[in-house]
Amino acid sequence: MKKAYLISTGTELLIGSTIDTNSVFLSEKLLALGIRVTGKSTIGDNPESIRNAFNIGLGSADIVISTGGLGPTFDDLTKKVASEVMGTTLELRPEEAERLQAFFERRRRKMPEINLKQAKFPPEAEVLANPLGTAPGMYLKKGEKVIALLPGPPREMRPMYLNELEPLLCRDFRLERKSVMRTIKILGPGESQVEELIAEVMKNPVGCSLALIAYEGEVHIRVTAEGEDLDHSRGIFDSISNRIQEKIGHNIFGYDDDSLSSVVAGLLKDQQKTIAVAESCTGGLLGRLLTDLPGSSSYFWGGVISYSNNAKTKMLNVDNAILDKYGAVSPQTAEAMARGIVKQSGADIGVSITGIAGPEGGTDSKPVGLVYIGLAEGGFCQSKELRFVGDRNGIRMLSAKSALDIVRRHLQK
Amino acid sequence: MKKAYLISTGTELLIGSTIDTNSVFLSEKLLALGIRVTGKSTIGDNPESIRNAFNIGLGSADIVISTGGLGPTFDDLTKKVASEVMGTTLELRPEEAERLQAFFERRRRKMPEINLKQAKFPPEAEVLANPLGTAPGMYLKKGEKVIALLPGPPREMRPMYLNELEPLLCRDFRLERKSVMRTIKILGPGESQVEELIAEVMKNPVGCSLALIAYEGEVHIRVTAEGEDLDHSRGIFDSISNRIQEKIGHNIFGYDDDSLSSVVAGLLKDQQKTIAVAESCTGGLLGRLLTDLPGSSSYFWGGVISYSNNAKTKMLNVDNAILDKYGAVSPQTAEAMARGIVKQSGADIGVSITGIAGPEGGTDSKPVGLVYIGLAEGGFCQSKELRFVGDRNGIRMLSAKSALDIVRRHLQK
């Protein structure tokens, strides 16, 4: 497996004002190509740090990719030092100078002298086009080693990687997407539970590597299947996916870019059903998740944020006697809320959430994290008790996602 | 200014499954202490990479702080290599072994042999207590250089930094918080507008450094004031803050840990007022923001997610004639929604949002990004037209935050 080393340049990454998402993007894309990132380094804009980082990278990996530091003021520095490390120097490329000149002319501005630096490249280098900015990228191969320089802004960097750099890496390292990288998404069991459930699969992953990732209450299994070619890899993935399916079953809610919202949206559209919500402790979060996707008005009626008891009785016709007898956080109230919103809205399905998000308001019998989720459709009405551990926002997010998951399971019956 | 170098250990940081927030936290805290992070490196768990990273760090900085790699399986590796780099070796500390033993006994489990590694430290090192996990941290000073090892999980790392490591750094480098780092938070003008407005301040920041940070529609000005001592720095901050205030005025909604939700919550509590919401395109997001903080039931009644026109007429008594004549996205509808929720809820203030979040549904006269926000209190009712640029979720977030900001301005009148 080829190895890559990533370098991020930029003071904003060192003073804690910006999170480096570029390296996360590149790690994923490279891994899918069969290139493993073995290290990464974040540096400021001084030549010694840049030189150091490139030397470490070239010493430990086949490919060194740097992002950032290509603006007109710093351009020279990264490009110059990287070229020196590769034993070459920068020369002006007339065609690149013309391209820059044209860029400024189109904007009716005179090109500042300083920008001419952006038209300098080592003679051996290939220029990576940047249709979205002034700074082109650079690709330089020498012997078995490659360095590539990409711009820092993600909206310039991502298309340049995909359209320019990846094809060159495939050409020079005879790579093709042979491997398949897919994500299996789970709600219900926690990370260590999933690990236990699929222990046998993890011990014997035949041609795959598996990684467990906990994400906002979900557990993702990232599977990289490495076969002889793409079809072979797909076959390997399918067979391990079946084995995982046997162990995890209905707790798998989706794959890859699926979200609970998108899965539920798909089911509602397929079955031509509408939904309305009645939310207490989540304060509107479930509604927000249900409207994350465009076109949600075809299945989402709306709902009530019944945060106060007054809102529950007034807007959802929850009986005061139920609130008095069982309390606002009870299966009875959850069911009354779900029935109430179905009646008010005329939607097919009503889903409700009531619980204690904390940190205050818990008691021995009703601790923080206790949540009831109700679901009503036609004459059917049920509630489920859940107990979550976490902080206020964690409990709220888990509550809303669990409500979506209960709707999913109901619709998949 | 002292320099620090950060090392993050963990394969999950290299395969793109986890974003490294630890280094962002540490960069900020160290900067406030007067220590500048000059570089950082992310590595897997092989001894050569670890050795390399520590050597680079010690060569370029005074303090090297590593996070992660302290679990029972890897613990030995990072601690061992770091100790070797510092010219020392690990020895068992009986008191740490006892502490570990006790940790397992309290959980009625036998301590696995492998965990004993976690009780080994160089004789010169100081142990950093970890009340939240099994892996203690380590602090080792030799000559003018320091290395510190912290655990990877943020909930263990953060308190260990604050309670254990920071006091030792202050002791050994005779640091005290001389500088003041504060954040001025703005909603309204965009990043480049703010830059223009405070251009004169940025040119002449007398004793401060300023950084502009765009965050979810807000603009933050991070001010680091570096005086002779804390009082002096506070004075410097106050005077630059006044100058910024003159330029930005009421668009400043808060400072430091303030959020729009917390500012509005404070105003509602002070004025003993309650609020209810009527949300269309935001689908519940405004309600979620208003309930982010514990104790929100004292001012938040709840509300209606009136995503469909049916929900607007049925739950908010918006007149069908208004919807027919002006459309759902109009000042008239926004005001009717605000009046409607006040009437339904009996809350003091009603705030409403209706708009086109896109990507579909826009027309020439009502493009994607057009949003109306209504506010009603007693006999008062007004609406404001806003036009946002961005994707669906960006427009929704900006809409909800602007609604909070309109409530803030109304309450601060």
Q: Give the largest interface.
A: A-B, 76 and 74 residues
Number of helices of chain A: 14
Using the coordinates above, name the CATH class of the largest domain in chain A. Alpha Beta
End-to-end separation of chain A in angstroms reads 44 Å
The figure for the number of domains of chain A is: 3
Sheet-strand content of chain A, in percent, reads 25-35%
- Under CATH, the homologous superfamily of the largest domain in chain A reads MoaB/Mog-like domain
Taking strands numbered 1, 2, ... along the chain, how are they ordered across the largest sheet of chain A? 2-1-3-8-7-6
The best one-word shape of chain A is elongated
Uncertain runs of chain A:
none
Oligomer category: homodimer
Which radius of gyration of chain A do the C-alpha atoms yield?
Answer: 27 Å
Biggest β-sheet description of chain A: 6 strands, mixed
Instruction: Count the beta strands of chain A.
Output: 17
Task: Bin the helical content of chain A.
Answer: 40-55%
**CATH arch. level architecture of the largest domain in chain A:** 3-Layer(aba) Sandwich
Overall structural class of chain A, as computed from helix and strand content, comes to alpha/beta
Look at the structure and give the mean pLDDT of chain A: 91
CATH structural fold name of the largest domain in chain A: Molybdenum Cofactor Biosythetic Enzyme, Chain A
